[in-house]
Write a structure and sequence with these properties.
The complex is a heterodimer of chains A (305) and B (423).
Chain A: H1 2-19, H2 32-52, E1 55-57, E2 62-64, H3 68-75, H4 79-109, H5 115-127, H6 130-140, H7 147-154, H8 169-194, H9 198-207, H10 211-222, H11 224-239, H12 243-248, H13 260-269, H14 273-304
Antiparallel strand pairs in A: 1-2
Helix pairs in contact in A: 3-14, 4-8, 4-11, 5-8, 8-11, 11-14, 13-14
Chain B: H1 2-17, E1 25-32, H2 35-51, E2 55-62, H3 65-78, E3 84-87, H4 91-94, H5 98-101, H6 116-121, E4 123-124, E5 127-128, E6 131-133, E7 137-144, H7 145-151, H8 159-171, E8 175-177, H9 189-192, H10 195-201, H11 205-210, H12 222-233, H13 246-255, E9 258-264, H14 267-274, E10 282-285, E11 297-300, E12 303-306, H15 313-326, H16 329-339, H17 357-367, E13 371-373, H18 386-394, H19 400-417
Classes of the chains: A mainly alpha (305), B alpha/beta (423).
Amino acid sequence: MTAEATEVRAGRVRQVRTLGTVRHAYPLWFYLPAAVLFLVFFAIPTFASFYFSLTRWTLFDQEFIGLENYVQFFREPQLYQSFINTLIYGFVTSGLKVVIGLALGVLLTSALVGRNYLRSVIFFPVLVSTIGVGIMFKALLDPFDGVVNGALETLGITGPGWLTDPSLALLTIAGIDVWKGLGIACLIYIAGLVAIPTEYYEAARVDGASRWAVFTSITLPLVKPATGTVLILSLIGGLRSFDLIWATTGGGPGFSSDVIGSVIYKQYQAGFYGLSTAGNVVLFLVVTAIMVPISLMLNKREVEQ
Amino acid sequence: MVAATAAAALVLAACSGGGSTDGTVEITFLTSAGDLSTATGEALIEAFEAENPDIVVNLDTKPDGTDGDNLVKTRLSTGEMADVFMYNSGSLFQALNPEQNLVEMSDFAFADSLTDDFVSVVSTENGLYGGAYGASLAGGIAYNGAIYDELGLEVPESWDDFMANNEEIAAAGYDPIIQTYGDTWTAQLFVLADFANVNAADPEWAQGYTAHEKFYAEQPALAGFVHHQEAYEAGYFNENYPSATYEDGARMLAEGTGVHYPILTGVMDTIRANHPDAVSDIRFMALPADDPANTSATIWQPSGVYIPQTTEGEEREAAQAFVEFVNSTEACEIFTAQGAPTGPYVNGCELPADVDPLVADVQAYFDSGRTAPALEFLSPIKGPNLSQITVEVGSGIRGAEEAAANYDRDVENQAQQLGLEGW
């Protein structure tokens, strides 16, 4: 029995070798452990969630209702606003991370006193838990006994309600997100910047190029792969953002800083499990629809370069 | 009767308990996290164990609010629920599928002593599924009586009188109305505590609401949203209302910097703990209606204690004995000693003679028959976003009519989830 099996397997390996030269270096069943893990922890839950998004599901029982959850999700009065907020949040945070991250990256790769210390200072917020950051900033930015407005007051400025003013709350959270996520962007840029051969800069200096010309003609084009990585990572993070928003405002005041993620969480809290699963599917589709074209575009440029 | 059943339960527990190694039965009681509720839970367990040496009760806690709701539902659906658990009555109780998950209690000894109002909020068509846990609460306006005396104000009967009082209070330099949107749930009281007034104007309202025939966007229910907007526009709120918390609100009320706090009478627990000297100053009034004839107090029924069906055999006997105990007069004394009641008991216990002025005020509304249960006890529908919607009204982000219409849409999810007719 076992001898037979070995023979069969050996035969298949030989067959593969003869058929497709060395296309499969290992027999297919080597992939089995990974495939099982993938199925159990990724594929099955994903398809289960697609199924549950079509049900009215209360943990105790479930009823198949077709696309009704999706209809209901799109009829949520606050959904439109939260959708816009998600886009604003995603693009503002990733834009700022690219611009400030690149600026700091350039600064921190130049000959600067205390460079390593500054690098670690900028990277430090990345290590702190998002919820902790949220709670900390909530206390710091409290309009009445917060440190920030207290400091502004000594300068004679009446600070706004950073997290309690409906027109400011979302942008304030985006600012906190940038503060927290900048370290990663900066790190990627530093890696990209030090990979640029110094010969280019030397050549430019010999030619008498100004600092700005060096930056726009050498640095900027050559860190494009890093820019692409930062942009994709921070945009995906921004569109799916939830934890920081939940810890600082809970989507409030009212619904003014709600994003799709927090709307989904609130539906889950309310016990509308099918509905919130439908929301997750929608979020998945939205993120895919935005990210696939962007990453294709960025990758294409990378190849051309 | 109570004693007899308790004794019978004891005997049964003792008999069946003979099989276990040391003759004792161990059960778990799940209650809310928080100093007061764990202290109350521990005091109840201590007194119960003294009477029932064969039973050991372990205390377990759950978070409040929606996180706790999910924990309860998850534990019930996975069969991991504690043998006795404390949970909301009313609409949240209905969402637990009581008939499928909970033990029926109509033959328990305390069943006959419960008020009809309470029975209705822990029952389905097929039976009674919970005992009472503590005293009821009232929702309305907790106010600082010392400042009322100082300014010579009368308790207002109508909304216009109330606003006139606010004007005088503002002129005297106090904040007329305390709002605390740092804890968003507190924003709902203008609407939720107005329900007794809606009910007085239209006793069929709750029924029509459940049948999708009555709406918040229409009068009389719209009044709660409109009053909230008027109070905001008049500038009567404390300056830090966007970020102040419930505890801040209790402090402002106790210290008299703010005079009216639309809230549940449970706020007394916080005031007693943090500002004991102010307890005798704090009083209660119903949220005033436009028509003084309708002004009445909205009553929240106590939470229930429930036994999951997954608890069986001697554990179920022990759990039953514990639920019986929680509904005994002895337990009422423990509740009174721990937290001081915030409204009448619902299981036949009398309030002590020397209650706080606030509780006496609540009792006066009961005595004159001017109370109604909160809407969540008359209808299974409560939209999940009401607190954010009322924050919008109270912060001037949205007007009353639009907010009420949004809330009408918000409740649709809940009604559909429950599979109600006509939605």
